[in-house]
Amino acid sequence: MSTKTNFKRIALVAVAALGMGLLSSAPSQAVIPTSFTLTAGATAGTAAEGGGNGAASTAFPGAVSDSTTGASVTLNFLGVTASTDSISLTVAPKSKPSAASVYPKALFTITDTSSSTAIPKISLETGVQGASGWGEVGSTGTGQGNQLIGLESGVAVIVAASSTANRYYTVTAKIHLDSATARSAGSYVYTVIATPYDAATRGAVSANVKTVDVTITVSAGSTVAGSQYSAAVMNSGTSFSGAIGDVDSTVSVVSTASTTNRGVIRVYLRTSTNTTTANESVTVVATRGSVGTTSGVAIGKNLTAQYNRTQGYIDLFLFSDGTAGSGTITISTPSVSFAAKTINFYSTEATKLAVISSSPNLKVGSNTMSALSVGVLWVKATDANGNTVVANADGDSGVWAYSSNTSVVSDSGTACAYNSTTGYHHCSLTGVAAGTATITVANLGTNLNAATLKGDKTAAVTVNTASAATLVLAFDKATYAPGERGFIYISANDSAGKSLPGQTLSNLITSAGITVSKGVITAPAGGTLTLDTSANTSPATSVRVASIDTCDTLATGLAVRCITFLAPVAGGDIEISATGGAGLPTANQVAVKASAKVTNAAQADAAAALAAVNALATTVASLRTLITTLTNLVLKIQKKVKA
Question: Which conformational region is residue 319 in: left (phi greater than 0), alpha (psi within -120 to 50 degrees), or beta?
C-alpha cells in the first residue's frame, strides 16, 4: 500500500472520529500549526426560501443554490513540508428554524487563493473507502470555481495541501445551501471545522483543531399567488395520480350519494416569480355534488380551506350526493381564479333508451364496426335529466338486446357495452342464418317482457349470406367545393341489388385498381392516395351517426371500403372507374364508374347571382299580385260609395 494512500486513510478516519466526538485533545507534535487561523467572513450568508425537488415541486424548482450570497470562511496556515502538510475542512449542522424538518446540505465553493505565497492544492474527498484507499474527486491547483459538496456526516470535503515547503497559504471559500432540500425562513447555523495534518506524524493535530460558526439567513419569500405558475389539475378516481402540468381528466361518475372519492383536484399555488409556494386561502364552489379537503369526508358545496404551504399543494376531493347532472366547480384564491372544472354525475336508472342507428346488413357470425371495434346497434341511454347513463347499480351495461328471430340473429338478452368515446351503448349482434329479424333493446337482461323500459323503436336487420354479384363505386356527395375533402365508397351488391355485409371480398376489383378517368384528385395533407391497386377489398360493417359521420370511422351506413381524397382546387368534373374482378360472375366483370362535380369560384359566383335574380323575380311577382289585389279592392269600395 502506498505511503500517500495510507496517510489519507488515517487522516480521514481521524476526521470522521472528530466529527462524532470520539477523539479528545492531545498535545501537538506538529510544526504545521505555527501560524493557523480560521475566520468567518465579514458578512453572513443569505438565501431564498423554497427549494426542494419532490413530486410537488418538480415543475417549480424553487430556490437555487447561490454561492455569491454564501457565508465566507478564510483559512490561513503555514505549510512546512511540501505536498503533505494539509488542512481539512468539514462542516456540521448546528441549528435551524423550527419549521425546517431537515438541514440542507452545505456546499463549499472556493472563491480566492490570491493571498497565498504559493499555490495550494485543493481536492475533494469522496468519503468512500475502496480497494485502493480513499479516492479523490476534482483537480489539483487553485481550485477556484470548483463547487465541493459538504456532507452532514463530517467527512472531510476539502483538503488544502501545501505545494511548496515553508510557505503561508490562504484559502477563502463560500458556504451556501443546496437547492434539493426545501428551506424554511429563518437562520441556519453550520460549524466549519479545520483540522491540521502533520506530515511527520501522519496524523491529525487534534490540539489545534479550529472551529467557526457561519450563519445563512433564509428570507421569507412572497406569499402572494401568481396566475402564471399556479395550477389546478383534476383527476378521476379516489386519489391524485397526475402531475402539475397535466390536462384535466374527464370525470363522469355515478350520482349515488357516497363518501367514496369520485375525483380529486390538486391545487398548486406559486408566487409570480416561481421561487416559492404561496400562502392563501382556497375557496371552492360546486354547483352539483360536494367537496372536501380530506379523503372520504365530504364537507359541502361551498368551502374555504387554508392552503398547505409546507406540503406545496392542497387536494380537493369530489363526492356525489345523489343528484344527477352536469356540475361546475370553481376554485379561487384572493389573488388567482382558475378555469372552472366540469364533472358529470350520471344516474344509474335510465328513463329513455333511444335506438340511434343500426347496420341493416349482417353477416353470419359476430357483427361489429371494424373501425371502432364496437357493436353495430347504437343506443343512447339517458336519465330523467337527459344525462347519459353509463352503467347500472350492479356495474353491468344497463342495456340488453333481444332478437325477434333467434334462428336468424341469436341474441337474447345480449349486454350492450358503453363506449366513452362515442357516448353510446353498442350491441354486437350475431348472425346465424339468412333471414330477417327485429332487434329490441331493454333495461333487463333476463326477460324482455319483464323489462320496465324498452327502446323507443326497434331495428330491422337482415342476415345476408349471398355472394357478391356486382361492384359498386360511389362518391359521398354529388358536388364538392374546390379543395373539399371527400370520400370514395367501394362496396358490393348481391344479385338482388342489396348491399352485402362487412367481409373480405376477394378479387372484387381487378389488379388494376381504381383509376381517375376524369379530373384530378389528391390525398389529404401528409397522406398518400391509394386507389385499391390490390385485388381484395374489405368492406367494414358500419353505422351512420352524425357525430362521427366521416370516412375516418367508416360510419357510412353501408358495408364499404372508404378512401379519403381532396377535390381539385380548379373545379370541374371528376370521375373514377374500376373493373369488376374474378370474384364476381363473369357477366359482371365490367367497368364501373362514379362521377361528381367540383364547382369553381366563377361558377359559385354565377350560381349565387342567378339565385339572387330568381329571388328578385319572385319578389317582383309577389308585389305585382299584391298591387293588383289592392287596385281591385279600391275600385270595389268606390262603387259602394257611389251607390
Answer: beta
